[in-house]
Amino acid sequence: MSAPSDNMPIPAPAVRSKPLLIRHLPYFIGAAILVALAAGLRFDGYVLNILLQATTFSIAVFGLSVVLGLCGQINLAQAAFFGLGAYAVGLGTTDLHLSFWLCLVGGCVIALLAGAFLGMSTLRLGGHYLAMVTISFQQIVTLVMINAIWLTRGPDGVPNIRRPELFQTSQSYLAFCVAMLAIVGYLVWHLSDTKLGRAMRAVRDNELAAGVNGIDVFRTKIYAFALCALLGGLAGGLFAGGFAYVSPDQFSFAESIVFLTMSLLGGVASPIGSAIGTGLLILIPEWLRFLKSVPGLYLAIYGLFVILIIRFMPDGIWGFVADAFNRWRAHTKAPPAAAPLELKPATVGGEYVLEVTGLSKHFGGLKAVDGVDIAVKRGGVHALIGPNGSGKTTTLNVLSGLYEATSGRIVLDGTDITHMPPHRRTAAGLGRTFQNIRLFRSMTALENVEIGAERPGNTMIGKGEDALTERAMEALNFVGLGNRANELISSFSYGHQRLIEIARALAANPTLLLLDEPAAGLNSTEKLELHELLKRIAAQGLTILIIDHDMTLVSEAAQHITVLNFGRRIADGESMAVLRHPDVVSAYLGSE
Amino acid sequence: MDLVLQLLFTGIGIGAVYALVALGFVLIFRATNVVNFAQGEFSMVAAYLMVVFSVDLGWPYWLSFLIALGGMALLGVIFNLGVYYPLRHRTFLPVIIATIGASILLSNSVLAIYGPQPQVLQGWFDTPGIQLGPVYLDSQYLLIIAVTIALVFFNYWFFEKTLLGKKLQATSQDKEMASLLGISVSTMIMITFIYSAVLGGLAGILVAPVLFVSIQMGSTIALKAFAATIIGGFGDVAGAIIGGLALGVIETFGAAYISVPYKDGFAFLVLVAFLIFRPQGIFGERVAEKA
Predict the structure, then answer these.
(1) DSSP letters spanning A414-476
(2) Which chain B residues contact residue A297 at CB under 8 A?
(3) Which residue does chain B place closest to A204, by CA atoms?
(4) The pLDDT of residue B232
(5) What is the DSSP code (8-state) at residue A488?
(6) Chain-chain contact of A260 with B227 (C-beta, under 8 angstroms)
(7) Contacts of A174 (CB under 8 A, 6+ apart)
(8) Predicted confidence (pLDDT) per residue in B177-236, tens digit
(9) CB neighbours of A371 closer than 8 A, spacing ≥ 6?
(10) Alpha-helical runs (H) found in B80-216
(11) DSSP H stretches of helix in A74-153
(12) What ipTM did this prediction achieve?
């Protein structure tokens, strides 16, 4: 099969995707059958308890699949959030005589707020902090549960917790919990294909790239963390109603580790995996009851499991299955329709798209960028060149907001973006690629480009998932990779990965495109193709600011060149004139 | 006033233990960019080794001490080979999860072998302490403080003045460059793990006579030590020590004047306050990832 030529429309497959609810009907039918079985079959008390535990624990572990699986953030306090929900129902229905439903919702809210607070205080920092802070939070919650006897009744726990009127029998309560499990499971499963879910995966794969593609990294992490806490609280509330008794030792750090092991064993990225892991780790200790007779032994085995799973089965049990399934699916799914990519850079009409004045970036005493002015004319290719260490990439990083400017002003198409975080600059119309490619490695080419297309303020996409996919396909076709849209990033060559990064930026329909050494590492054929691509981009009126070392590419593609050396601007003007400028020649070749 | 001085002494003594464990954290973090969540378990295991040899078998204290430290060096080797080394090319998340797994494995293995009953370990000296004016100086606390001071100087000398120390520093700053200069990176990392396991073990043995020897002692100390590293400034040796001392003092005063049952909670409150208002710690600088 020959590759479709670069910008030709591919004939559209006639089938439009069916409405979501219909496509997912088998799931709901299966769930309904499970609920009916839970309600109808006669279980003895022992089996009932195990099923109830598995169901409620699964919901808590779903939370981990969101925060750890989707978003790549760790939470070692899930048992504490679980406990918050459980105590809300426990104390609310006994001491306060409130309705079960009110307590359940209240517990969820308390867990959510606690999670959001923890997240806000820690998530700006690295994952180590989060791990330690969640352990600390877990310890504090346990301390309060044991010592605040006036509130929690201390180590004795809370007995006689009530259930809702509607589900008084254990059997009907189990059916209710299974229904909750099915609903939560559906939401978590579906989450990864929503805008928020894609943002979480992007954050997990590459935070910097997520930021410059318009994703508010910090907020996304807080959402993931708060959602995880919320699911923990919900699960805990259901647990308390089911077992009618809660005590502090049920919500200890050890239980958080049990939740983590369940999640890792089943497969951290998917709710199905979570349910499998939970079920196994509840059943296996029941089969191996003799292990529980020696205190510590079964937790020691859990610890060993964690090490072994991380080393030998990083995607868990479900990861194996899903991998095989995805490979099969990827080959059957035809690339969707795509018209030629249209770029309509926004404009407020001024002569310059980007005006940088007096821009400086100092690292301690080092003046990496020192009072640089750049004015990029609308609709052209502008090159920023200079010897190694002259401050080009630093300038680009300050422009895209990865570094805060020490001083100076950056105006993009009439908007002052000097103090905006990266994702807001992207929303304002900035697009960029990276010198060392930063793609979302666990995703397909199409998904990568979809995240780009999803930038806030992109006027070129209509409503809905289909429009998003269409736009992404247009961008991939534009760079000539439309026929490989569903392949994972790792299967592409280095040069093609660069093209995907450019497609990701183009899909967002930016006002200005920053290219950081796009020709680096490309062979001569690929460089020619890149040059052609730049021409086609410029032909649609998109302004490009490019950094590169390849003088042939720069002199042929760019109409205007700014030259930096030692962080200062040493020349600026029309390409040919600048390249002949004696200062530029001596900066590159040395003076006599 | 007398009470204040007495509490200050106790606080510095317990803070010195946190500082020692925090030092182990910082060394491993600087060498591997990974926080070792089993660092506290090193202390716990060493304390149990002391109980086994000194109490159960009745061997001389100094001999048990040497055996325990030797055991810790061995544990450092096993830990590196079993937990860190196979994952060295993965991102930090799998690695910290693996160290958490190791921490659970170590503490619960000891629990399975030794049972939940806390054990008692004698101090190094027979004299319980000396009265200095209004303040009673417990001999074990004096020893802890002395050892910590000595180790701070030893660390400085070792990392700044010896070739091995400089190789370790080079490895922690740039592994690729270090290996191009002929430094065996895997050997350096191995040495780091051995050294920090011994350091953690030393802290455990020193603090054991003050606390009880229990399964939980490791995780409690480790959490405080980690809080100390954040308060001091992550990855900063001086910061870890100041942070550890500060935490010990805060906690001792908090227990005396506010609440005993919540003693362990104060460290975490201070930690959260620092994370919100000064996440780079006392000495740290903000770092940004390179694009």
Answers:
(1) TEE-TT--HHHHHHTTEEE--SS----TTSBHHHHHHHHHT-TT-TT--SSHHHHHHHHHHHH
(2) 108, 112
(3) B93
(4) 84
(5) B
(6) no
(7) A38, A39, A43, A48, A51, A52, A55, A242
(8) 888 888 888 888 899 899 889 988 998 999 898 888 988 888 888 888 888 888 887 777
(9) A358, A359, A360, A408, A568, A569
(10) 92-114, 139-161, 163-173, 175-180, 185-207
(11) 78-94, 100-122, 127-147, 149-152
(12) 0.83
**Nearest residue in chain B measured CA to CA from A141:** B265
The residue length of chain B stands at 291
Residue A362 reports pLDDT greater than 80:
yes
Distances, alpha carbon A424 to alpha carbons A40, A352, A374, B149, B192, in Å? 54, 20, 21, 50, 43
The closest alpha carbon to A362, from A146, A81, A567, A153, belongs to A567
CA A175 to chain centroid, in Å, comes to: 34
B180/A contact by beta carbon, under 8 A? no
Distance separating alpha carbons of residues A433 and A544, to the nearest angstrom = 11
Min Cα–Cα distance to chain A from B124, Å? 30
- The answer to whether the Cβ–Cβ distance between A129 and B288 falls below 8 Å is no
pLDDT at res. B289 = 41
| Other CB atoms within 10 Å distance of the CB of residue A361 | 22
Query: Is residue A449 a contact partner of residue A500, using CB atoms and an 8 Å limit?
Result: yes
Element (H, E) at A369: strand A366-377
List Cα–Cα distances, A70 to A192, A262, A330, A568, in angstroms: 7, 16, 20, 43
Structural domain including B64 reads 2-290
Q: Is A264 touching B (CB cutoff 8 A)?
A: yes
Rounded Cα distance between A263 and A228, Å, is 13
Q: A-contacting residues of B 130-169, CB under 8 Å?
A: none
* CB-neighbour burial class of residue A267 (10 A; exposed 0-12, middle 13-18, buried 19+): buried
Phi first, then psi, for residue A572 (nearest 5°) are: -165, 135
Check pLDDT > 70 for residue A328. Answer: no
How do residues A79-114 score in pLDDT, each as one tens digit? 999 999 999 999 999 999 999 999 999 999 999 999
A207, A300, A396 member nearest B108 (Cβ): A300
Kindly compute the dihedral angle of the four CA atoms of residues A431, A435, A440, A444, in this order, to the nearest 10 degrees: 90
Compute the distance between CA of residue A359 and CA of residue B214 in angstroms, rounded to an integer.
59
The single residue listed with the structure tokens 């691509």 is A533
Q: Is the pLDDT of residue A2 over 70?
A: no
The total domain count for chain B is 1
What count of other Cβ atoms lies within 10 Å of the Cβ of residue B157?
11
Both structure tokens of A482: 């439309």
- Whole-angstrom CA distances from B179 to A14, B172, B185 are 58, 11, 6
Best of B79, B92, B97, B276 to disrupt the A interface (most A CBs within 10 Å) is B97
Question: Which residues from chain A sit within 8 angstroms of residue B232, using beta carbons?
Answer: none
Locate B59 and state its tokens.
């061997």
Does pTM top 0.90 for this prediction? no
d(CA B107, CA B223): 15
Q: At B104, which CATH number?
A: 1.10.3470
Residues A475 and A507: beta-carbon distance below 8 Å: yes
**Hey, which residues 257-276 in chain B have their CB within 8 Å of chain A?**
261-262, 264-265, 267-268, 271-272, 275-276
